[in-house]
């Protein structure tokens, strides 16, 4: 039987995580898939992990040099050959047993969908037990609707996305990487549904591991990369632009631009006034919406304060753990 799905798993020096990831893949209710592990030139041997999963008939590819996280991702996209659908998964995440079955079902029954994604359960150390799924709720969206939902804090894992293989020709990946670096996930998904639709499964089908080695914490991001992401959102919203959406968009970018500038390392950013001037030139920041940004910032700060206060009294150990993780993150992004 010819496989319908290629599951690429990107890995680098994390044999324990890879083993857990492959265990979740082995447990899939849908079995008609091909597995390709892309090893980004690990120093540690991963062959012994692969050998434990002979039933998955894994194609193991170890690059001769490290391609970087975006390079390994691009390699996967360029090597989809024989299947109608594909997933680019990360070795540090895990799948619900019905992950492939449910996402494939949506793509098979809706020909206008470019991709399907799902919600997530974040964790740090020990993987939690998946919540029982008794009903599957989905939302089908166009590009403008997707952009607006992300602005309103839609949570989903990039590794949860299952794509139609014929969407590959819709993207210039080299241009995307140049424009967005490692924060290209949302721009890619928005670009794919400029014409067409996507679907979101609201049940969490991914266990999303949070740890200090994540590429999103350590990769090369410039202020242009950051600002270009907001340009992509504005482009997606253009077909549905209204005064209400304008207010929502500029209030959101005001907060995100200021917060993003603080997070960028000193060597990666210009003076704040120059940074905002560039944002204005790109059409993603307006002074007259600054009031809404300030209100949003104050509201968010108050919410964070009371959440932290509650955590301090209910779980002091977790409170101090989060503080230490946050300080580690700040040290990394300022280097």
Description:
With 335 residues, the chain is α/β, with parallel strands linked by helices. It has helices spanning 15-26, 47-51, 68-78, 99-109, 143-151, 173-180, 185-192, 215-218, 223-237, 243-263, 272-281, 290-314, 316-334; strands at residues 5-11, 33-39, 59-62, 85-90, 94-95, 113-123, 138-141, 162-164, 197-209. Strands 1, 2, 3, 4, 5, 6, 7, 8 and 9 form a nine-stranded mixed β-sheet that branches. Helix 10 packs across helix 12 (290-314). 33% of the residues are buried. The model is unreliable at 328-335 (pLDDT under 50).
Provide the number of structural domains.
Answer: 2
Residue stretches low in confidence (pLDDT < 50, at least 5 long) are: 328-335
- CATH topology annotation of the largest domain: Spore Coat Polysaccharide Biosynthesis Protein SpsA, Chain A
CATH class of the largest domain: Alpha Beta
Please give a quick description of this structure.
The chain is of the alpha/beta class and 335 residues long. 47% of the residues lie in helices and 17% in strands.
Q: Can you tag this structure with a few keywords?
A:
2 domains, 17% strand, Spore Coat Polysaccharide Biosynthesis Protein SpsA, Chain A, disordered C terminus, 47% helix, alpha/beta
List the helices and strands and how they pair.
Layout: E1 5-11, H1 15-26, E2 33-39, H2 47-51, E3 59-62, H3 68-78, E4 85-90, E5 94-95, H4 99-109, E6 113-123, E7 138-141, H5 143-151, E8 162-164, H6 173-180, H7 185-192, E9 197-209, H8 215-218, H9 223-237, H10 243-263, H11 272-281, H12 290-314, H13 316-334
């Amino acid at each position: 039987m010819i496989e319908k799905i290629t599951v690429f798993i990107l890995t680098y020096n994390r044999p324990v995580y890879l083993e857990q990831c492959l265990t979740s893949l082995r447990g899939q209710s849908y079995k008609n898939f091909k597995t390709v592990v892309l090893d980004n030139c690990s120093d540690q041997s991963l062959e012994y992990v692969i050998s434990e999963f002979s039933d998955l008939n894994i194609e193991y590819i170890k690059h001769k040099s490290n391609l970087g996280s975006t390079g390994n991702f691009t390699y996967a996209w360029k090597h989809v050959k024989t299947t109608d659908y594909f997933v680019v998964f990360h070795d540090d995440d895990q799948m619900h047993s019905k992950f492939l079955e449910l996402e494939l079902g949506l793509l098979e029954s809706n020909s206008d969908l470019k991709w399907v994604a799902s919600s997530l359960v974040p964790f740090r150390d020990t993987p939690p037990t998946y919540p029982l799924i008794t009903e599957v709720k989905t939302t089908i969206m166009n590009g403008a609707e997707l952009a607006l939902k992300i602005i309103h804090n839609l949570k989903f894992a990039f590794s949860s996305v299952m794509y139609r293989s014929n969407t590959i020709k819709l993207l210039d990946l080299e241009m995307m990487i140049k424009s967005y670096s490692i924060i290209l996930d949302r721009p890619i998904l928005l670009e794919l549904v400029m014409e067409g639709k996507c679907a979101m499964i609201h049940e969490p089908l991914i266990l999303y591991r949070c740890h200090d080695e994540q590429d999103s914490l350590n990769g090369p991001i410039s202020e242009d990369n950051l600002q270009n992401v907001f340009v992509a959102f504005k482009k997606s919203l253009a077909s549905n632009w209204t005064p209400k959406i304008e207010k929502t968009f500029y209030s959101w970018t005001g907060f995100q631009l200021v917060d993003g500038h603080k997070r960028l390392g000193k060597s990666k950013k210009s003076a704040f006034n120059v940074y905002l001037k560039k944002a204005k030139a790109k059409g993603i920041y307006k002074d007259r919406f600054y009031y809404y940004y300030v209100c949003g910032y104050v509201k968010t700060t108050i919410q964070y304060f009371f959440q932290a206060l509650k955590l301090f009294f209910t779980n002091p150990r977790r409170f101090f753990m989060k503080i230490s993780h946050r300080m580690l993150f700040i040290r990394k992004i300022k280097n």
